[in-house]
Amino acid sequence: MNQRRRITTAHGFSHRWVLSCLLALLIPIRSPVPSRGDVIVLANRTGHEVPLKFTPLTGQVQHVRLAIGENLPLYLDGKAEIAFSSAGRARQYVLDANCAYYFGRGSGGAIDLQKIGLGEDGTLAEGRTLPGTASRTPVKTISVKVLVDDEEPGRRLVWERRLRHRVEAASAVFGKYFRTRFEVVATDTWNSNNATTDFFETLAEFEREVKPAPAQLAIGFTSQWTMFRGRTHMAGTRGPMHPYILAREANPQVGEVERLEYLIHELGHFMGAAHSPEADSVMRPILGDKLAGRQNFRIQLDPVNSLAVAIISDEMRRRELSSVSELDVNTRKRLGQIYLELARALPDDPAAPRYAQLVRSEANSPVVVAAKHVLERIVGKAMENRALPTAKGNEPGTLVRRQGDELTEHLVREAARAAFEQPDQVQRQAFLLAIVACLGGGEPLANYPPTRNMLAALEDPSEQVVRRTVVGRPTLKARPDLLQHFLTSSLLAATVGIEPAYTAGIAKEMADAKTASGFSFADLAAGRAGARFALAVLNKKLRLEDIAESFSVSSYLPDLADLPEQLPAKEFAERYGTTSDPRFQREIEAIDRRILALPGYPPQKVAPH
Ligand SMILES: [Zn+2]
């Protein structure tokens, strides 16, 4: 039996990683692991400095003088109030989290504040929660390896100093606005192929030949070509958090300021910026227009890309991330909206649509798409059920509203029926994901990285509210808490494996033993039954057709009435010692025997665990 089968392959979480995180994440199920983290960008297009008072709804007042042309990200939790004076009169507004605003002049010449519409749907206006610790590192350092190819004419001492300076200058821009800096930790050389003339072929060669380690990001400066004309690429990378950037170095027509601008542009891509239609943005699609060499020119991102980069950097400071797919679902949702707006503004440019696709991939993953269909169907069935009368009328054959165990059985059967219509490769995972989302059990997993993104991609918070109301109160053996344990463990087993699910189940009860609820062998048994059920579904030991036909609570959950419950830690220790004590192990084995003997698992079909 493959115990590490995962519900989706989109996550690269290892078994060991999960075990080490379980205790940290699953025991304090009641304390929220994610914390708030938001940003608001203010841009100044008035032509004058704008003094203002910025007051986060939770946090300290900040007095800011917004310089001419500046795009300033302000980090906070949730919304903020802003106050400034316009033509001698005080103005005050409430600003939404994760949005960009600009100061401009109205028809009368008075300054005012406008929101830059970026596809927001209101769901993140109050702020977003992010996994990782709230105690933010003030500045995130991204380590860089700088390389030159064999065509570099300068001696090592010379090119090292030149390129280190350039990275430092670029880093200053990101340090000031995005609390992120780039630090050169290694330098090296590589041999580029003289026959290659295409930029992206050279980039591919660089990616093959060079390893970024010990740094996170490798920046290669090639002197392979000495001539360039028109729209030839001067530098490039493949998208946000891609660990390689390649830039052309040898070109006498390009000055150091412009080289710096190219580097900031590519580092902007690394940090999640796409191309901008604004002519003075470092993220304009075509550089090399000599703009950077002008006096008083400020090399900076536009407000929209500033927002995108600030949103990503806020999450980067909390935990180690190596690809866009690891970003939190709320981050990816907001970035998706921002990129689609940039794509609309620059319809011929491929960057923004590609980035949008990258960040929206989870919502479009086959398992989530299939689970959405299943969830939609069972919520529909729950609505039909809710419309039924609660007591039998005089008419023979009238249906009565299903409740408790009967409601659970009805919805699980309908979920299996709907899942069976989905593509074969994803139907079993989609079934499990949908019943967990629909019947509950997802709450403790909503904060747990391997399941959080999937559950969140499945439905919007507004849909969740509607769904909770229509579904009612399903139970197992008349107990809603047993159903929660059954479902939580089933999704955990399907996502990270049965052993971690078992370990988490025991850890949860040991934590409960220290509280008023106490250690419950019934809860533990319901969890183990759920994990066993999920494994049997994934391994096709249980067929969806059969579940659709005849799922019943008594087939998959043993009698638990005689199992000890509400044991305080002291009593647990007296009766069972620790969780590795033979007395405790005997109880667990007895529970597992009961589960294996259930009518849902015919003896000849059960593989020994
Ligand atoms: Zn670009």
Report how far the terminal alpha carbons are from each other. 7 Å
Counting helices, strands and paired strands, the structural category is alpha/beta
Question: Uncertain runs with pLDDT below 50, 5 residues or more?
Answer: 1-33, 227-231, 605-609
Heteromolecules bound = zinc ion
Major sheet: order of its strands?
12-11-13-15-14
Give the overall shape, derived from the CA principal axes.
Answer: elongated
Strand elements, count: 15
- Note the total helix count: 19
Estimate percent helicity: 40-55%
User: Could you give a short account of the major beta sheet?
Assistant: 5 strands, mixed
Domain count:
3
Q: What integer value in Å does the Rg equal? A: 29 Å
Note the beta-strand portion. 5-15%
| Overall average pLDDT | 85
From the structure above, extract its key features.
single chain, 609 residues, alpha/beta, Immunoglobulin-like, Collagenase (Catalytic Domain), 3 domains, 5-stranded mixed beta sheet, 4-stranded mixed beta sheet, 19 helices, 15 strands, elongated, disordered N terminus, disordered C terminus, binds zinc ion
Structure description:
With 609 residues, this protein is an alpha/beta fold. The protein folds into three domains: 96 residues, Immunoglobulin-like (Sandwich); 220 residues, Collagenase (Catalytic Domain) (3-Layer(aba) Sandwich); 233 residues, no CATH class. 42% of the residues lie in helices and 15% in strands. The strands form four sheets. It has a five-stranded mixed β-sheet, with helices on both faces. The protein has a four-stranded mixed β-sheet with strand order 5-2-8-9, covered by helices on one side. Helix 5 packs antiparallel against helix 6 and helix 15 crosses helix 19. The chain is elongated and about 85 Å long. The chain binds zinc ion. The site of zinc ion (ZN) has 3 residues, from helix 4.
